[in-house]
Amino acid sequence: MLAVHLENGVVSMREAPLPQRPAGFALLRLMVGGICNTDLELQRGYYGFAGTPGHEFVAEVVEAGTRSLVGRRVVGEINLACGQCDCCRQGLGRHCPRRTVLGIVGHPGAFAEYFTLPERNLHALPEGMPLDRAVFTEPLAAACEILDQVAIPRHEPVAVLGDGKLGLLIALVLDAHGYPVHQFGRHPEKLRIAAAAGVATELAGAKLPTAAYNWVVDATGSADGLRSAASMARPRGTVILKSTVHGAVAVDTAPIIVREITLVGSRCGRFEAALPLLEHALIPVEEMIAARYPLREAAHAFAHAAQPGVLKVLLEG
Amino acid sequence: MLAVHLENGVVSMREAPLPQRPAGFALLRLMVGGICNTDLELQRGYYGFAGTPGHEFVAEVVEAGTRSLVGRRVVGEINLACGQCDCCRQGLGRHCPRRTVLGIVGHPGAFAEYFTLPERNLHALPEGMPLDRAVFTEPLAAACEILDQVAIPRHEPVAVLGDGKLGLLIALVLDAHGYPVHQFGRHPEKLRIAAAAGVATELAGAKLPTAAYNWVVDATGSADGLRSAASMARPRGTVILKSTVHGAVAVDTAPIIVREITLVGSRCGRFEAALPLLEHALIPVEEMIAARYPLREAAHAFAHAAQPGVLKVLLEG
User: What pLDDT digit, counting tens, does each position of B140-173 carry?
Assistant: First the structure.
């Protein structure tokens, strides 16, 4: 079968053997995959990754122990948890210390004709859910994770910093849940997607409001984001950290302590929170699709996705 | 009157006029003051401070609009809030953006024969409360602040990093509230005070436990503290930041985000939370007294307080 191979920053295609399907796993055939910023970071050399990337996908179940799954279209949770440890027993397999992660850590990813995942990671899609929408389940779940972690009071304004893919999904999710969202970004064409859904958007110049919000989300992906977000928060306010910035960031903790700001690290989320939003078409994710490529043109697709200002690039199986 | 003067790192005594008492203020006579790490930081040049320091005190009310206050022994909240703004209306005068702060920002401090504070900042002491105990109200309130900010479930172990004055008070407060406390420090003689009260103490060597606690308090006062505390926290755990470290600290935010750690900045607290603990002698604060000096020997007192490993140094009016 054909599989994307990523090593030393180079995306290439390889012929690979069909993956073995261990007990409890399903063999999956890629229908559509989404290139995530994490994939681009793997290409830039973070985590010393070498192998098949890809963790946003819709696939068809080719083989599975559970007969009713075969032939179904599925999306899948990306953390392969041990199921035994404290984290797993608390329903937090996403934090299992022994986990592998699809296309990121220790488990070959979805950018291949075929790949495997534990059956318990899979969610069968409702009939008629468009592939182009379903492929956003994983990043949308990451946006929904915020509301799993913190209880934002009804009607509280939330500031979202950043208008990349994740920033847009976060703004749209919060808006869909009824929060007044103020999104600050640098790209008019991206902010337009959020604005069309009812989000109040603003082109962020040099001057951001200070001490103005009880709830701020940093989705800038930049080291400056945390500093800006903290200064936008009111005393006793909360900043949700959605930007994985690699390496040490110089943070002045004094104002965070003096103003008693709470910082909440936030990562992957439950698919159960994202799927109903997609099923009821509450989030216009399709408008974030910038381009689509066949799987064998993954190198071009990665290059396209890495261009500044480009939103979601899809790979079609 | 005699007043301590701090400028360019030098502590000296000055003759100063008796302070004016504006409407709503009380004129106070110092009985005993406590030297805090913040005072030592002012001496080291942070905040560009020049003037009379001192914010931990017990005083006698000499003059006040409220006749019943005159002659009473009082402690006092250190933030002089405007009383009008959003923060003040929410009962968070400690975060009033227009506040001055006794002996720290814009209001002469308590290390003088006489000083002033708004009457609404004062708490009259119960009859018979020893001065040596009451002088710990302000730092004890800062320790209590943690339980005002976060709801730690009953019986949850809490790790406290650091065995300085604030670290000890935090461990003792959490212990008094029934939490199993594990305190990690570097000074056997300080840890002994917490251990005698029932806190499990450990001399922190190179190796601290990792991913071991849902609740961790950093009271080390060092840039390393935040890193250590974050690595001790379990996924989805909470780290309370009690160490004001000056200047930017290099923080690797990636593990904080990946492990979804919550960081809570924490500063001053309500005196109402601290006073009952002192009244019922639930916290052995007197054991933290290292030395006492008359006010006029403030320079010696500051020098003593700045020596490594020294706990609370008192100034007697």
Answer: 999 999 999 999 999 999 999 999 999 999 999 9
Nearest one of A215, A214, A223, A259 to A243, comparing CA atoms: A223
B85 touches chain A (CB under 8 A): no
For residue A249, the chain B residues in CB contact (below 8 A) are 250-253
Half-sphere exposure of A232 (CA within 13 A, CB side): 27
d(CA A55, CA A117): 11
Whether B263 and A256 lie within 8 Å, measured CB to CB: yes
- DSSP secondary structure, A49-112, as one string: --B----EEEEEEEE-SSGGGTT-EEEE-SEE--SSSHHHHTT-GGG-TT-EEETTBEE--SSB
- Six-digit token string for A185: 């970004």
Fold exhibited by the domain A142-265? Rossmann fold (3.40.50)
> pLDDT by residue (tens digit) across B84-142?
998 999 888 999 999 999 999 999 999 999 999 999 999 999 999 999 999 999 999 99
Place of tokens 């607290």: B269
Using the beta-carbon criterion (under 8 Å), do B244 and A236 form an inter-chain contact? no
d(CA A58, CA A63): 15
Tell me the pLDDT tens digit for each residue of B239-253.
999 987 767 777 788
Calculate the average pLDDT of chain B.
Answer: 95
Q: Where are the domains of chain A?
A: 2-136+283-316, 142-265
| DSSP-based three-state secondary structure for A186 | coil
Q: pTM above the 0.90 mark?
A: yes
A151 touches chain B (CB under 8 A): no
Angstroms from A234 CA to nearest CA on chain B: 9
Name the fold adopted by B2-136+283-316.
Quinone Oxidoreductase; Chain A, domain 1 (3.90.180)
